[in-house]
Automatic annotation (TrEMBL):
Annotated organism of origin: Aldrovandia affinis
Region called Disordered, residue ranges: 1-24
The protein's name: Uncharacterized protein
One BP annotation, GO: DNA repair
InterPro entries documented for this protein: Restrct_endonuc-II-like, Viral_alk_exo
Keyword entries, A-Z: Endonuclease, Exonuclease, Hydrolase, Nuclease
GO MF annotations, alphabetized: endonuclease activity; exonuclease activity
Matches recorded under Pfam families: Viral_alk_exo
């Protein structure tokens, strides 16, 4: 977090960082209370802008399932599906 962001967070009663403040990548960890708070605040999916913000550029269960069952992963294609890569 930058100094400006940290200062703004001190006055914010919300325990959650904004989605863009959580780094992307393998090994990123969030504590249980934060995960539960994000889950509660992102209910309603298609009607909830926070749901879209938290899922942007992340590999979700539905994306992982589609990729793991693709022709490329199963050896029936030499090219990964572009639409799946775009989703990630």
């Amino acid at each position: 977090m930058s100094a400006n962001t940290a200062g703004a967070r001190e006055n914010d009663p919300s325990p959650l960082p904004r989605p863009e403040e959580v780094p992307l990548g393998v090994g990123v960890q969030m504590d249980r209370l934060m995960v539960e708070a994000v889950e509660q605040q992102t209910r309603g999916q298609s009607e909830n802008p926070l749901w879209f913000a938290w899922h942007r550029n992340r590999i979700t269960a539905s994306i992982a399932h589609r990729v793991s069952h693709s022709r490329f992963v199963n050896g029936r294609s030499d090219t990964p599906p572009a639409s799946y890569l775009t989703a990630i």
